[in-house]
Write the structure tokens for this entry.
Amino acid sequence: MWIVLLLALLIWALGAHGELWRASHWAHHLYLADAFLHGQLHLVRTPNDAGDMALVREKLYIVFGPFPALLLMPLVPLFSRDTPDVLVLVITALVALFAFHRLLERVIEPRDRLRVALATLTLGLGTAMHYGAVMGNVWIHTQITATALQVLALLFAARGRAWTAGVFLGLTVLTRPTLTLAAPLAAWWLARPQGLLERTPESWRRTLLALGVPVAIAAAIHGVYNFARFGSFTDAGYHYILMGEPFETLVSNFGRFNLHFLVTNLKGWLFGLPVLAEGRLMPDPHGMSLLLTTPFLLFALWPRRVERDEWVAMATIALIAGPSLLYYNDGWVQFGQRFALDWIVLGLFVAARGAKRAPVALVVGLTLWGVLVGAWGLQWFRASFLH
């Protein structure tokens, strides 16, 4: 595990050309942390780029969940706009890798150290986390933070720590609520120590209470936060968001979630390819196929006896992925599919189970493929979009 963590940190440092101590361009969470420190919910300082912020009554608000800003608050008084949110995000990503490795050690029997390590390496360097941890910016910062919280919740669920799992799920509500939908798999693993069929109604009630109460409290906090900003418990400000004309047209015609977007998004997730630009093969900024960027996921289809918790995980993936597949925004601008980070931990768990039956050489090969493609994405994104 420590080799994987050090390798990920080394590759991120090299990919960033040693510039991990810096603030990202779209550092919305820094602005929000600064506003909290000034005792208000709207921004104190007007950023140069107000994209994806809500403008209400001539005040700018951050629509993304407030939890990442709370993590940055201790640093903002020291460094102001130069607060190294990229370094904070890299540390957060390393926490996610640590927790994921521990989770796989817990739920994969018999343990296979090599395949567990390769699955963990894939999470860090074979997904959108590879370029995202080093680039920062509000969108990927929110997603990686939520991914770390989600995998911590699943780890504690697998260990039978229901209340701790519930707290981490509650924090995903305050970060990116889509990831809270991992609750069914968390509940299943909490049932594993005694066997699902042996659980009594009372034990199920205790489990659901332990998971549900922190989530409900977090949802109530978010509702009050919304009301204080926009006068509605359910309005997070997305209706007021500043966005480009193409997105405005899509939302005007179809709304933010619509079956109209399903085919396009699903096609991108499965079949998106690089594009030819200026005589060179370049990543498609709308995203590319997960089979190209994270081929380790193919091991989820490897022939074997599929365990019950894998079926639960796959059903939970469908639940989590649903909102993203119906969403008007495909994740632009991105490398790979950043919205897949919402469920990638569950997908890699199923794939790691399948990889136990696959030849070692193939598992190593597809892992390295994902790492190399991710490195390509980091260099392309850094050259094209680092301000």
Remarks:
- Residues 264 and 325 are 8 Å apart (CA to CA).
